[in-house]
From TrEMBL, chains A, B:
InterPro entries: Enolase-like_C_sf (IPR036849), Enolase-like_N (IPR029017), Enolase_C-like (IPR029065), L-fuconate_dehydratase (IPR034610), Mandel_Rmase/mucon_lact_enz_CS (IPR018110), Mandelate_racemase_C (IPR013342), RHMD-like (IPR046945). The keyword Nucleotide-binding does not apply. Residues 203-299 form the Mandelate racemase/muconate lactonizing enzyme C-terminal domain. It is an enzyme of class 4 (lyase). This is Mitochondrial enolase superfamily member 1. It comes from the Eukaryota. The gene is enosf1. One of its GO terms (biological process) is carbohydrate catabolic process.
Length: 445, 445
């Protein structure tokens, strides 16, 4: 099966009209339509083997990512899976460092999101092939540390993590791996919810959703802040009262503030004891986050960021500068599993917990594999660690996430869990799917 | 004329087959086809007023930028020039922070290059309108400091430069402005040449081009390095011999190295006394550049970077961390004049010279305006300052740069100097232009 050749790559623009109900709204993204550039790799295998991948977007602009996926596809089609994974580091660099296309990046923005969609599909394909034999999901594509290391491009990060150091971390974590795997299968990985407190929700919605979540066993809650200080105080106060002093509260400003403004604003929310302030300022501002971290440390508030941190070099600097206390990896923003392996291993070296970003469309499905890998094969710790969860749009996936008692239950199906239902894809294709045609019709009336 | 409404935006993919002769080749871009996404804004003015803008690319991937320009065009078409420039800061943010499209950036990569192309056209349009009345090129669109400041989005940089500080710099530089302007008109702005030593050139080509350049009055030369150390030593030695000890040599690695590798490699080239090492490592690595700067300072070698530095927040950090000693602004990588104003003013505050990146297609035409502005209206200094020049592809422009005795002579025509000859555009449109059809034919033979 590894000999299967990739014969075709298709990519589609799939959008969900979430803005109609203010799901996903925050201080900077006031009307997101959760979307994906959805990639399918077809192969010449007899078993009709396919690979599914996606990258998450929030509406307009998805067509640009689709265009970029098409541009990169010529580097993928015609290769066998074996060719790719026998030099996955080389293949990663082929995509990320094409002598012409790297100019429009490099390794950032649209072209990096497109790289993620394609490589997510390649990892899915690989996992399915391994699964055909051993029925294992992505997190165990390979348990060979040397093989994993060979997927990582260490260019530009050797001053923070050498190949040998990375290997040592993986080898050391072999100890106790079996029991951690069993623990995960039994208990699952701790999650927190962002579904209760989007910025566009009313206090009434917020109260109701929070109460329901508590009843379902949730203990960790994230609140969107940053548009209006008095609103934030009211909302944080309300939620802290609802969840009590012992549950965990996090706040998220989605890049709304300048550096000094962030410090002032968050200081005024300190009385509600948030564990972290997420994305207080520009995602590119390593030194700004370092200043904020330093100012907020005495208040017991950490800084979390990463969902728009575009590559391993940025994460490297955030870690070097002590600019974050929680590393929020994302399954689509950087170069897929390859680059996230590098980031997870750097976080381990710097002893900073990884708490993934998820939500959107398919991000929970994807990132659960990465955080399970982190616990089982790298960090071996749950201390201060949890994975974001948002309960939207899972019904469009063939193997949706399973949450039990506020924990992610490890996926059982082979693959990277991001195959969508074909019917959902067709209905939501933009602009020709029936959902969008109906919205257009309504607009005309 | 300010009341003119923008009625249409067209964008075309224009590529020049420069890779055929290794023009522009460096350690990371081995086969660039210099290209542009070329924007024309049409208006409803009686005078058939148009605005011309572009962003530079190196071949494949230009179609993605074209797609992004189209996505952004809905935010531009229908607006009058007056609406835009009466709140240019707001218009800049409209483009850079659209609630949906910012996800595929923000302010980086493809979407930022597209923003630059559009805003370059808007600045051109504005300059032409001013020129109709006063016949002045872009550098003097407005000489009112407050008006200039109102074009800048200070979001995320107030910890390094406040609006008041920026204003103070401009007001202070009013002194002597008139005589500096006269000086520029007479002598021009000092330039250096990169045309002699692309990585793909033979030693013979290099010797010939260098000798010719010396004869033409050039005194400052840049050499591409980074692929092979022994080659670099031979080439630097050759050029240093050719130009003698008193002329200036700069070296450029185009991001080839890791941090420690950069320090070791450049140390071995120190005997040739380069003024700077340009792009020693990943353009995102502020802290890496700071380490390199610190290590090379005792050797008298500075660090230069910026052509792939994607926004003002990155430049802010490079300055805060003393990670560069030469600020290489680019007219297309960041958000046009608006963002370059912010960068030029930050460089002034941190007292670091601006030495623009140019070359490619149209970059010299554009950036000459910015560096003239820097000298006349901001820094008032030529110390350690010079602007890159490459002598390719100027023949495709309606008002090409004028170089006299290795100096840029200020443009006389109104506008931002990037209107291309329509015939050139049509011939080089990709893939349907006759130049590309001929290459395709040859490939088939």
């Amino acid at each position: 099966m590894l000999e299967s050749k990739i014969t075709q790559l298709t990519v589609r623009d799939v959008r969900f009209p979430t803005s109609l109900e203010q799901h996903g709204s925050d201080a900077m993204h006031t009307d997101p339509d959760y979307s994906v550039a959805y990639v399918v790799l077809e192969t010449d295998s007899d078993a009709a083997l396919k690979g599914y991948g996606l990258t998450f977007t929030v509406g307009r602009g998805t067509e640009i990512v689709v265009c970029a996926v098409k541009a990169l596809s010529t580097l993928v089609v015609g290769k066998t899976l074996k060719e790719i994974i026998s030099d996955f580091r080389g293949f990663y660099r082929l995509l990320s460092s094409d002598g012409q296309m790297r100019w429009v990046g490099p390794e950032k923005g649209v072209i990096q999101l497109a790289t993620a969609a394609i490589l997510n599909a390649v990892w899915d394909l690989w996992a399915r092939v391994e699964g055909k034999v051993r029925n294992k999901p992505l997190k165990t594509n390979t348990s060979d540390p040397a093989k994993l290391i060979s997927c990582i491009d260490f260019r530009y990060i050797t001053d923070a993590l050498t190949e040998q150091e990375a290997l040592d971390i993986l080898v050391k974590a072999k100890k106790g791996q079996k029991s951690r795997e069993e623990q995960m299968l039994k208990e699952g990985y701790p999650a927190y919810t962002t579904s209760c407190a989007w910025l566009g929700y009313t206090d009434q919605q917020l109260t109701q959703l929070c109460s329901e979540a508590l009843a379902q066993g949730w203990t960790k809650f994230k609140v969107k802040v940053g548009a209006d200080l008095q609103d934030d105080i009211r909302r944080c106060s309300l939620i802290r009262k609802l969840i009590g002093p012992n549950n965990t509260l996090m706040i998220d400003a989605n890049q709304r503030w300048d550096v000094n403004e962030a410090i002032t604003w968050v200081t005024k929310l300190a009385e509600f004891h948030p564990l972290w302030i997420e994305e207080p300022t520009c995602p590119d501002d390593v030194l700004g986050h370092a200043s904020i971290s330093k100012a907020l440390a005495p208040l017991g508030i950490g800084v979390a960021t990463g969902e728009q941190c575009h590559n391993r070099v940025m994460f490297k600097q955030f870690l070097q500068a002590s600019a974050l206390q929680f590393v929020q990896i994302d399954s689509c923003r950087v170069g897929s599993v390859n680059e996230n392996l590098a980031i997870i291993l750097m976080a381990a070296k710097f002893n900073v917990p990884v708490c993934p970003h998820a939500g959107g469309v398919g991000l929970c499905e994807l990132v659960q594999h990465l955080i399970l890998f982190d616990y089982v094969s790298v960090s071996a710790s749950l201390n201060n660690r949890m994975c974001e969860y948002v309960d939207h749009l899972h019904e469009h996936f063939k193997s949706p996430t399973i949450i039990r008692n506020a924990h992610y239950i490890p996926p059982k199906d082979s693959g990277y869990s991001c195959e969508m239902l074909e019917e959902s894809v067709q209905k939501h294709q933009y602009p020709q799917g029936e959902v969008w045609r109906a919205i257009e019709q309504q607009g005309k009336q």
